[in-house]
Specification:
By secondary structure, the protein is of the alpha/beta class. It is built from 16 helices and 17 strands. It has two domains: 106 residues, Urease, subunit C, domain 1 (Roll); 301 residues, TIM Barrel. Strands 1, 2, 3, 4, 5, 14, 15, 16 and 17 form a nine-stranded mixed β-sheet that branches. A four-stranded parallel β-sheet has the order 6-7-8-9, with helices on both faces. β7, α4 and β8 form a beta-alpha-beta unit. The N and C termini lie far apart (56 Å). It binds zinc ion. The site of zinc ion has 6 residues, from loops.
Length: 447
């Protein structure tokens, strides 16, 4: 028996649609997808809206839900534990010390914590680049199920990792990684509503051998999805690539048997002009993490040049202990400010471009119908309180959302047509429960 379609009608005073602010707007969603966008009066008369549940966002502006194209959810538990240390000291004293202790239930806690905080900041899709797999899928499953509990959309970028210098919990053989990826994809990948996607993620040139990178990219080709890889985050990684492979990071990966048009490169801070040109020619995408790059002192990706060459760029927060915020709206601002200062040019990039990177472009690079308020896209929306001073004056709404917005103004969030944040609180999981769980996991940890 087919069930009746779920109809939701959202009505607000303002909306930012494809970068342009408009007045009173109504959006009709049927079974989680946007079916119509019009004035409230016109949609009230539309027979498809008959019997729809009303979500009344008067006094609010609607923006598309933001897309976090790169994160490591478990790292939220490490926030503040290893800050302001040199990378190798942080890795050994915080990351390698605590992360191997985390079991499935702890990683579920980390997911509730990271994703819950993201929802409160207007993130509706997160890509979790996950490498604590312990040669199995119960850890990745626990993370996926934390997003499902919260009602958030997740891309599980399941890592392929075989560098023997890292803790055993990160490592797998190539046959293990391939079999586990295929098992996880078969179990969770959701073609209907795209609430869960499973994509492969060979960690990096240092974390995955060339054969492991090829295996990950091969799984992406077979599954028809993108694949993810960290490249050239820090300058020493370029030197390592030159020493090991005789060429720079992007060129070294391009020499492998991989489909670069499916590749999502993370960071790329130290790509030179030749790598940027090759990236455009081979049609790879970028997950850009300006907040993390600044926090760790990594360097500055030339995003202005990459975009001019036609490279698709989404935004990521990276892990909660390398930023240490989880807001894509913050990344939009960070992107603009960093690119402007890199070129000492206040016109290097505009608010509207940064907004598109954190919404529509993020959805596009992940291969998901999200990040736009458009018919046929999934209904992922954020409500902003127009009485909040950080959005005044209202005629500059598109600019203010990127440059001035306070997270205090984010009141409600809808994912796939369902309200998952109402009046600044998660609707599905009690924040007290998440807080209690985080305390239990981290209580014995020291800085
Ligand atoms: Zn990362």
């Amino acid at each position: 028996m087919p069930t009746d379609p779920q109809r939701v009608l959202i009505v607000a005073d303002r909306a930012v649609i494809d970068g342009v602010a408009r007045d009173a707007t109504a959006i009709l969603a049927i079974d989680g997808a946007i079916a119509a966008i019009d004035t409230p009066t016109a949609l009230a008369a539309d027979p498809r809206a008959a019997g729809a549940t009303l979500i009344d966002w008067r006094g609010r502006a609607i923006i598309p839900g933001t897309v976090n194209a790169h994160n490591h959810s478990f790292q939220s538990l490490l926030r503040g534990i290893g800050d302001d240390l040199p990378f190798l000291e942080w890795r050994d004293r915080a990351l390698y010390r605590y992360s191997p202790r985390l079991g499935a239930d702890d990683l579920h806690t980390a997911g509730l914590f990271a994703f819950g905080e993201m929802l409160l900041h207007g993130v509706t899709t997160v890509c979790d680049f996950f490498y604590l797999n312990s040669q199995a899928n119960d850890h990745a499953s626990a993370v996926i199920e934390s997003a499902q509990r919260l009602g958030m959309r997740i891309v599980m970028a399941r890592c392929f990792y075989d560098w023997d210098g890292a803790p055993a919990a990160y490592r797998e053989t190539i046959p293990q990684a391939v079999a586990n990826f295929e098992g996880l994809h078969a179990r969770y990948h959701d073609r209907d509503r795209a609430l869960v996607s499973v994509q492969p993620a060979p960690h990096s040139q240092h974390g995955a051998t060339p054969a492991m990178i090829e295996a990950g990219a091969g799984c992406a080709r077979d599954a028809g999805v993108p694949w993810h890889i960290h490249l050239a985050e820090e300058q020493y990684q370029v030197e390592q690539s030159l020493a090991r492979f005789g060429t720079r990071p992007y060129h070294a990966v391009a020499q492998l048997d991989v489909d670069l048009a499916r590749a999502i490169v993370v960071h790329a801070c130290w790509f030179d002009e030749g790598e940027r040109a090759a990236m455009a020619e081979r049609q790879s995408a970028l997950a850009y993490c300006p907040g993390s790059n600044m926090f760790l002192g990594d360097g500055i990706t030339d995003v202005v040049d990459l975009r001019r060459r036609g490279v698709r760029v989404g935004l990521g927060t990276d892990g909660g202990c390398s930023n240490n915020r989880v807001s894509v709206l913050d990344e939009m601002r960070a992107c603009a400010l960093l690119q402007k200062v890199a070129r000492t040019d206040g016109q290097a990039i505009g608010a509207e471009d940064c907004f598109a990177m954190g919404t529509a472009a993020g959805g596009e690079i992940l291969g998901l119908p999200v990040g736009r308020i458009a018919v046929g896209y999934r209904c992922d929306l954020v409500a902003l309180d127009l009485s909040d001073p950080s959005l005044w004056p209202e005629q500059a709404l598109e600019k203010n959302v990127v440059y001035a917005l306070s997270s205090r103004a984010i009141t409600d969030v809808v994912v796939d047509g369902e309200v998952v944040v109402r009046d600044r609180h998660l609707t599905r999981v009690a924040q007290d429960e998440i807080h209690r769980r985080v305390r239990t996991v981290t209580s014995s940890w020291t800085r």
